[in-house]
Amino acid sequence: MKKLAADSGSGKLRFFGKIRGTDNDYYVAEGEGGGGEEGGEEGGEVAPDVEANGTGVNKFTYWVSHSSLGSWVKLPDISPADVQAGRKIKILFTGDLDRPIYADPYYFKAKKTEKFYLRAQIARISHSTSLAPKGLFRLTEDNPKEIEDNAPEEGEIVLPSTKAMGSADMWVHHSSCILLNNRTTHMEPEPPEGFEGEPEELMKALEAKDPYEKRLKPIGDDNKVIVSKNMKICPWVVKEMGDCTEYKTENNKTVSNGVVVVRSL
What we know:
By secondary structure, this protein is an alpha+beta fold. 16% of the residues lie in helices and 23% in strands. The chain contains 4 helices and 14 strands. The protein has helices at residues 2-8, 80-88, 114-129, 199-209, and strands at residues 11-19, 26-32, 61-65, 73-74, 131-133, 137-139, 147-149, 171-173, 225-228, 231-233, 236-241, 246-248, 254-256, 259-264. A hairpin with a 7-residue loop joins strand 3 and strand 4 (73-74).
């Protein structure tokens, strides 16, 4: 990944995870910048509803490899149509990025291959499962749809202990949600013929039909998972792993060698 960071010029590169395929698995790296290929039709014009690279579902750039020592391939940016297809069809990955996707109904009409389907599922995973400790971020004063570091005016942020983070109440969603329009934001609506009202009225009606999720929403507020006719459970499992014993350092700080694992069901 050090070579990938140098070759791509991407900032804040990190290992995103591993996605299994029937023939080959995908090791996924995530970074800022580096620019993916344009979404929509390959080699054609970009649709106006595609979120620009560095924003929305295309905020990050992703690379995949079949092994940690193999070459990395950059995935393309995606369009709302790709996200919609990822939501509506279920198909196994094979490990072949150039494999044509055939599904019923046939969504991928413009020579869309597995790399677009993979990129759409990565976007859905990232926007649904990127979490942060409660209190680490706050809403901005100007825009409640944006967040910022919750840094105090004086001193440093007081981080919660490992034991405290073992509760689901201490975790919130960090990323913005993907709307029903398969974007993270609404486009400016076009006034219908004969409309004489304010443009803000159209936007309010659009947001009422397809509302934004509250930023920094606690994971406990997510929709419950139905496990039986009379039982629903939280869609997250939070566990403390390893040696969770707390120790006092010479500076009277409480430390622990344990870790907290948060798993989405």
